[in-house]
Specification:
This is Protein kinase. By secondary structure, the chain is of the alpha+beta class. It is built from 9 helices and 10 strands. The protein folds into 2 domains: 87 residues, Phosphorylase Kinase, domain 1 (2-Layer Sandwich); 170 residues, Aminoglycoside 3'-phosphotransferase, Chain: A, domain 2 (Alpha-Beta Complex), CATH 3.90.1200. The strands form 3 sheets. Strands 1-2-3-5-4 form a 5-stranded antiparallel β-sheet. A 3-stranded antiparallel β-sheet has the order 6-8-9, covered by helices on one side. Strand 8 and strand 9 form a beta hairpin. Helix 5 packs antiparallel against helix 6, helix 5 crosses helix 9 and helix 8 packs antiparallel against helix 9.
């Protein structure tokens, strides 16, 4: 059994947890400073925490806290949160499920698409109105192209197998570290890149995105621009990293962008 990180953490959370009997750190990595499933006198929780230091990492945890009441149809429920001098801690319901598979023979894709469609039905709450999606702007070729990424959809923006959990009867989107307001096709587009990285060909990956209502309603030119911006983004990130997964994502994004460029030429 792993331990809680320190006595301050234990004191902050004790009101909500009572005595802790088991602590299990997940195998996969998280961007938070601490993450674990804890078994306590008051139940089982998944806790995420950041050191209470101003900056982007803490801001992402605050966003996850603030958006949670509005994404209950697709997200585990936040049961409690606490701010202390050293830590900010979120305590979520601990769900029973497994990470989604994006492999070629996966049976999970219909449930994944359904979850993205359920997310698309959620209106952008007031708390997120100012969270305009701009992260791809620097990789667009013009201000006009970047404007194609704007919209009125609530976005998760980190669609990957680890962030989609499948239970016996429910599917959840987890890790809402950076929700934004933008063009509705962006989350399905992120699914496309992930599927290509998992071995799907671009047309096959897009065939799954096409089952998302937001994709159907999108301007193909906006998707073209986003595909190329995503390729530029991963290419830039891979230059500064030795992480193999980033190079794999760069390759996937390049394959998709080249497919979109070829498609646009044929349609011209």
């Amino acid at each position: 059994m792993d331990a809680l990180p320190d006595d301050h953490f234990r004191e902050l959370t004790y009101l909500y947890t009572g005595d802790v009997s088991e602590v299990h750190r997940p195998d996969r990595g998280f961007s938070s400073d601490y993450a674990a499933v804890i078994h306590t006198a008051n139940g089982r929780f998944f806790v995420k925490a950041m050191f209470n230091k101003p900056g982007g990492r803490l801001d992402s945890l605050i966003r996850e806290r603030d958006i949670n009441p509005f994404v209950q149809p697709v997200s585990p429920r936040l049961q409690w949160s606490v701010n202390g001098e050293g830590w900010v801690v979120l305590g979520f319901e601990a769900i029973d499920g497994r990470s989604a598979s994006f492999d070629l023979d996966t049976p999970d894709l219909p449930r994944i698409v359904d979850t993205l469609n359920r997310l698309a039905e959620i209106d952008v709450p007031a708390v997120a109105q100012d969270w305009v999606e701009t992260r791809w702007d620097r990789f667009a070729t013009s201000t006009e192209e970047a404007e194609l990424f704007r919209g009125e959809a609530l976005l998760h923006t980190d669609i990957n197998p680890s962030n989609i959990m499948l239970g016996a009867e429910r599917t959840w989107l987890v890790d809402w570290s950076w929700p934004t307001r933008g063009a509705g096709f962006i989350d399905p587009a992120l699914l496309v890149v992930q599927l290509i990285a998992a071995g799907h060909r671009s047309p096959e990956a897009e065939s799954w995105a096409a089952r998302c209502r937001a994709w159907e309603a999108a301007d193909p030119k906006a998707i073209d621009a986003f595909a190329k911006a995503t390729w530029r983004m991963y290419r830039r990130q891979a230059l500064d990293s030795q992480d193999r997964w980033l190079r794999e994502m760069e390759d996937a994004a390049q394959s998709w962008a080249e497919h979109r460029i070829s498609r646009a030429r044929r349609s011209a």
